[in-house]
Amino acid sequence: MRALVTGASQGIGRATALRLAREGTDVAIHFLHHDRDAQDVAERVRALGRDAFLIQADLRDLSSVSKLSTAIESRWDTLDILVHNGGSYPRQAFPETTDVDFEEQLRVHAVVPAALTRKLLPLLRRSPSGRVIFVSSILAFEGSKHGAPYATAKAAQLGLARSLARELAPWITVNVVAPGSIDTAVLAGDSPEQRDERGRQIPLGRLGSAEEVAAAIAFLASPDARYITGATLPVNGGLRIG
Ligand SMILES: NC(=O)c1ccc[n+]([C@@H]2O[C@H](COP(=O)([O-])OP(=O)(O)OC[C@H]3O[C@@H](n4cnc5c(N)ncnc54)[C@H](OP(=O)(O)O)[C@@H]3O)[C@@H](O)[C@H]2O)c1
Question: Exactly one of 150, 156, 157, 216 is catalytic; which is it?
Answer without folding.
Answer: 150
